[in-house]
Amino acid sequence: MDKLIEMVNAWAKERGLDKVDARTQYTKLIEEQGELAKAIMQKNVDGDSGVLDSIGDYQVTLIIYCLIRDIHIAFWKTVINPKDFATETIYMNLVSTSSKIIASYNKGLVTNEIRNIENTFQLLSLVAGKYDTTLEDTLELAYNEIKDRKGRLVNGVFIKEDDFTSTQGYERGFEDGKNHVFELIKNKFDLGRESNEL
């Protein structure tokens, strides 16, 4: 895992992503969160933009956020059995914990920010476990997909070359991500019922 993180960090530095504002990188995290929600809803596990891709991309985005913030995270194997929880329950906790990262950053609460990043990785590990994979495997998958990717920074966001032809531009990713999260919440959960807490 450490070697993969080093490779992601080197990739990000080559593209100037280590110099962007942390809030800008966080918007990319929201996009990846939405992609994961969409993949879960569509039961797209290993297809293009599937669950496995999305978990890997989520990690890449969060690793770059940590690079920007100069936060070093220790990784561990989760001891919680992911089979004990519904995928949707884990995902909802993931959304909640991820949102606390930027809230802590905005308030200057670095200790809380680090704790929420660690919790986010642990919840991602649980999602991966629901699909019989690991953070390492999905991060390697994501890195192999991006390692030769070309593009440029636009307002602090790395836009891959293929997306320059998009008529809606990079802002589409954030909006799509946000909408997928809300759709999963609306369609998959009875928010009035009791649920197991992680």
From TrEMBL:
This is DNA-binding protein.
